[in-house]
Write a structure and sequence with these properties.
Layout: H1 2-18, H2 22-33, H3 38-44, H4 54-90, H5 109-123, E1 127-128, E2 134-136, H6 137-140, E3 165-167, H7 173-181, E4 186-195, E5 206-216, H8 221-235, E6 243-250, E7 253-262, E8 279-288, H9 290-295, E9 304-311, H10 312-320, H11 327-330, H12 333-336
Parallel strand pairs: 1-4
Antiparallel strand pairs: 2-3, 4-5, 5-9, 6-7, 7-8, 8-9
Helix pairs in contact: 1-4, 2-4, 5-8, 5-10
Length: about 350
């Protein structure tokens, strides 16, 4: 009997050493120690032995079971170690290899300038209002004191959807929409796309503006100058910037002004950018025409307001030295990726 037991232990050891995976080792475990395994059936055979032999036999079989169990768990540990080593080997990373470069996108220069302006205006308490790009002739022109056949329409020829509906030529209709739908005090900016039948190095059929409008009691041209100087200093990144107002004409403002900034390139001495004048024209504005206030239902004897319109392409061209407006719309990645 002892030999039989030893034989079984040897056989088990052989099978255990040959098992090359956890699964095969488990098969060996079942074969020897399972419900119908060799060791278990030996135990079952005990009842056929004479009672005096049973204790010795039981002890032998238990020792055998313990040996096999120990061998199996040692092998299990060995396989586990091997598996971990293999995984580490397979998953090893060579940190000296060059990395995969993930290309980072950039904001379009018009978006950059728009965000800078919006930030600056919001700092002064302006709220954002966005009107429709397809606009009524009445709101784009007539209520801004540009009646039919007014010569000011020549400068703003655009794309007509019908006789009365057009692609807005400026963001100024935003003023009308705000003034007809809310009461003063009003302090808004209207950023957006605008359209005109224009196409050359400094004019594009589609471009961007931000309109500003403030209506309240006792608003004056000084407020316009002060607010714009604060904003232009931020946008052109210089505290030394000065502004000057020159008389101009827009049907919807009276008086109307062009606003120049002192040249941020030469500090006002005169250079190529400012064409030797020391000043750069950046936007138009003025005091909201009494007629416009009246047409929008606001009493011009009680309230006054200032308004202005900034061309975003113009600001971006000045700020980033962009020579041709068409570059904004060609989407050439060599151009757009320069504005990180
Ligand atoms: N809408 C004008 C344009 O596109 C710009 C402008 C000038 C807007 C004066 C204003 C303003 O609000 O007061 O040329």
């Amino acid at each position: 009997m002892k030999e039989r037991i030893e034989e079984l232990v040897n056989l088990a050891n052989k099978r255990i050493s040959e098992a090359l995976s956890g699964k095969l080792l488990n098969d060996v475990k079942v074969e020897f120690l399972g419900k119908n395994g060799s060791v278990t059936s030996l135990m079952k055979g005990m009842r056929d032995l004479p009672p005096e032999e049973r204790p010795t036999f039981g002890q032998l079989v238990n020792e055998m079971r313990a040996k096999i169990e120990k061998a199996i768990s040692e092998k299990e540990a060995e396989l586990k170690k091997k598996e971990i080593a293999e995984r580490l080997e397979a998953e090893s990373i060579d940190v000296t290899l060059p990395g995969k470069c993930v290309k980072e996108g950039t904001l379009h220069p018009i978006t950059l300038v728009k965000n800078q302006l919006i930030d600056a205006f919001q700092g002064l308490g302006f709220q954002i209002y966005e009107g429709p790009e397809i606009e009524l002739d009445k709101i784009n022109f007539q209520m801004l004191n540009i009646p039919e056949d007014h010569p000011a329409r020549d400068m703003q020829d655009t794309f007509y959807v019908t006789d009365n509906i057009l692609l807005r030529t400026h963001t100024s209709p935003g003023q009308v929409r705000v003034m007809t739908s809310s009461k003063p005090p009003i302090k808004v900016m209207c950023p957006g796309r605008v359209y005109r039948s224009d196409d050359d190095a400094t004019h594009s059929p589609i471009f961007h503006q931000i309109e500003g409008l403030v209506v309240d009691k006792n608003v004056s041209l000084c407020d316009l100058k002060g607010s714009l100087e604060t904003i232009l200093k931020k946008v052109f990144n210089s505290d030394d910037i000065k502004t000057r107002l020159r008389p101009s004409y827009f049907p919807f403002t009276e008086p109307s002004v062009e606003i120049d900034v002192s040249c941020f390139e030469c500090g006002g001495k005169g250079c190529k950018l400012c064409k030797g004048t020391g000043w750069i024209e950046v936007l138009g504005g003025g005091m909201v025409n009494r007629k416009v206030l009246e047409m929008c239902g606001i009493d011009p004897d009680v309230y006054s307001g200032y308004a202005f319109g900034i061309g975003l392409e113009r600001i971006a061209m000045l700020k980033y030295h962009i020579p041709d407006i068409r570059m904004f719309f060609e989407n050439d990645i060599r151009f757009t990726e320069q504005f990180k």
